[in-house]
Amino acid sequence: MRRTAIFAVASVLLAAGCKQNVEKLAERHLKNAEEAFSAADYSLAKQEIDSIRILYPKAFEARRKGIVLMQEVEVAEQLRTIEYEDSMIALARAAFERIREDYVFGKEEQYQDVGFYTIKSQDPIRNTDRNYIRGQVDETGRMTLVSHYRGSSYIHHDQIRLNAGETYVETPESDERHEFTDLGICYERLSFLNGNDGGASAFIKANRNKDITYTLYRKTGPDSRRAVSGSLRMSREDREAIARLYDLSQVLLSLDGHMKAREEADRHLRFIRSRIKDGSAQDAVQENE
Predict the structure, then answer these.
(1) Predicted structure pTM score
(2) What's the pLDDT tens digit per position in 205-246?
(3) CB of 176 within 8 A of CB of 192?
(4) Claim to verify: residue 121 and residue 38 sit in the same structural domain
């Protein structure tokens, strides 16, 4: 009986000693995490905190402290992200303000949720007598190319190939085509929406100072197509207009991307602070003890 009692006491002391040793080992990682946090090395701080959970799951006190520190790290991360995104938003807005006067903005409030920027020289009303490619950019930066065709009959084109010297680019096929007849003339408007132009806008931008010709195509079978126009020449004014719209697109896409990233960081920050307030993360450790 005496041996059993001694063994029981020894087991308790051994368990207590092991627990203290585990906590001591876990505290080293916690100290490393605190130092990394102080140095704003948030990635390393999170790695050290994760090590406590993975290597020492029974170090409840260290884990509890680690959770508190992890929440502080996540708050600091989101605040840093918000600060960065605010600076990038300011830069993008300044870039936009420098060029916005070069564009015409239009939005029919009754029918459109998003407005569009265009170039005055490409207004369809002023260009009904020619074939050309025009561009437009919505408020979020998504660029659309529109092929305007007029002729004695419909050609039902659904693709464009653009050439600049020995280089070329082809748009994907598009079924965004509007056709109508006015005074015996057939008109077609083929659109490549929201940047889905196979790189045509960027190609025109890159070759704005070169002669660019383009050919209209129509799909004739599952794996076949044919040219439905001769070689058409882009005017210098159209090349310049689309290049300028492409520049606007990049500025607005950047602005929109940084605004969304800022909103996401702010949402995450609110979520973390709500968890800190209700203490749910620490309670989870308490339940496992």
Answers:
(1) 0.83
(2) 999 999 999 999 999 998 899 999 999 999 999 999 999 999
(3) yes
(4) no
Three-class secondary structure assignment of the chain = CHHHHHHHHHHHHHHHHHHHHHHHHHHHHHHHHHHHHHCCCHHHHHHHHHHHHHHCCCCHHHHHHHHHHHHHHHHHHHHHHHHHHHHHHHHHHHHHHHHHHHCEEECCCCCCCCCEEECHHHCHHHCCCCCEEEEEEECCCCEEEEEEEEECCCCCCCEEEEEECCEEEECCCCCCEEEEEECCEEEEEEEEHHHCCCCHHHHHHHCCCCCCEEEEEEEEECCEEEECCCCEECCHHHHHHHHHHHHHHHHHHHHHHHHHHHHHHHHHHHHHHHHHHHCHHHHHHHHHC
Asked if the structure places residue 263 within a domain, the reply is no
Query: What's the confidence (pLDDT) of residue 156?
Result: 97
Residue tagged 């005055």 (tokens): 120
- How far apart are the C-alpha atoms of 28 and 3, rounded to whole Å? 37
Please report whether residue 264 resides in a domain. Answer: no
Q: Is the pLDDT of residue 190 over 60?
A: yes
Residue 245 and residue 141 share a domain = yes
pLDDT of res. 268 = 96
Q: Which of 199, 104, 187 is nearest to 148 (CA)?
A: 187
- Model confidence at 109, pLDDT cuts 50, 70, 90, reads confident
